[in-house]
Design goal:
A 5-stranded parallel β-sheet has the order 2-1-3-4-5, sandwiched between helices. The chain is globular, with a radius of gyration of 25 Å. It has 17 helices and 5 strands. It folds into 2 domains: about 45 residues; about 200 residues, 3-Layer(aba) Sandwich (Rossmann fold).
């Protein structure tokens, strides 16, 4: 009797076990599904950055269809923090006596890899032609092997046609490639970093300032390493951008901006400058020297309102000579133009 009861209980437990495992799996799937739906329908729309990215296809098309000079500014956060697009258009309009229109397409903490896919996604693939793409940069932005924000690249700046190139050229490890593929199908995975930032910002009002200061400290420690400073870095992604822009007849201009980082301000950028100028692309250096007025900066990298106004004027002055009244085709003039500064 006892033996029979034990056997029955064991058999019942064995039968019930898969049922419990199935229920647990179903609960997990429901939770993950709920998080995915919440991310797609609610959280993604709460992110100002993601909403900004969603507007870029429309802005690129509108810019391409304007008359006069059409300038797209493509880069990291300095593209919108250090450049006043309305003021730049006004200054160019006044100096060139031509209608001028400018629009910024920026992604915080992005590098040349991401800028290439932004240009491809918003301008080259849809055939949106502009007269000039200004690429402002600081620090190591033009070099390879910077840390790419993979989820953002997957969800906003690439399509299925780009996968072979992304997986073969831009992502070096199996983990990065898996992250990219997961991010394409799973919005909550791809948006996890921005969702975390969004939640923290809502809970802690000073979180963005804290995160920016942490980033500044991380960069200072990273580039204080003498072994890293001596290490040669490749420029494959920059070469690809220059080559593809030439294939699409897209005029470019690279512009170095100053920061409060002495190592960045003193960096000669000899290799990327050589590569850029050898491609017939203008290269403008707005740093002017090692010393900068710290009062025009909001942090180590980004300018405040005074700095933005000052350097937007300097940028307009640097661009005006090749976007003058005599250039009915601004793109042709820039393609033939020389480097500044």
């Amino acid at each position: 009797m006892s033996s029979s009861t034990s056997s029955s209980e064991a058999i019942g437990a064995a039968i019930a076990a898969p049922g419990r495992a199935t229920r647990i799996a179903l609960v997990l799937l429901l939770v993950l599904g709920g998080v995915e739906v919440l991310t797609r329908l609610k959280l993604v729309r709460m992110s100002k950055e993601f909403e900004q990215f969603r507007s870029y296809p429309r802005l690129a098309t509108e810019l391409a269809h304007r008359s006069g000079l059409r300038l797209a500014i493509v880069g990291a956060s300095i593209a919108h923090e250090d450049i006043d697009t309305a003021l730049l258009a006004d200054r160019l309009r006044a100096t060139t006596r031509l209608p001028a229109h400018t629009e910024a397409f920026s992604a915080d903490h992005s590098y040349v890899n991401t800028w290439y896919f932004m240009l491809n996604h918003y301008f080259w693939q849809p055939g949106n032609r502009v007269d000039l793409v200004v690429v402002p940069f600081v620090g190591p932005s033009l070099y390879d092997k910077n840390e790419i924000e993979i989820g953002r690249l997957a969800r906003f700046f690439t399509s299925v046609e780009d996968w072979p190139e992304v997986l073969g050229t831009d992502l070096a490890t199996t983990a990065e490639r898996a992250d990219f593929l997961l991010s394409n199908f799973w919005a909550s995975w791809g948006a996890r970093e921005r969702m975390q930032e969004l939640v923290f910002t809502r809970l802690f009002p000073n979180y963005k300032a804290y995160a920016r200061e942490q980033q500044n400290l991380f960069l200072a420690q990273q580039f204080a390493n003498p072994r890293r400073a001596r290490k040669a870095r490749s420029l494959v992604a920059l070469e690809r951008l220059l080559r593809t822009a030439r294939e699409h007849a897209t005029p470019l201009c690279f512009v170095v901006f100053p920061t409060q980082r002495a190592d960045w301000n003193q960096q000669p950028y000899a290799e990327p400058r050589r590569l850029i100028e050898a491609s017939g692309v203008p290269y403008v250096d707005l740093r002017g020297g090692a010393d900068v007025d710290t009062s025009i900066f909001a942090d180590l990298v980004h300018m405040n309102l005074d700095g933005r106004t000052l350097y937007t004027g300097l940028l307009a002055d640097a661009l005006a000579p090749v976007l003058g009244p005599g250039s009915s085709e601004a793109g042709t003039a820039f393609a033939a133009g020389g480097a500044g500064g």
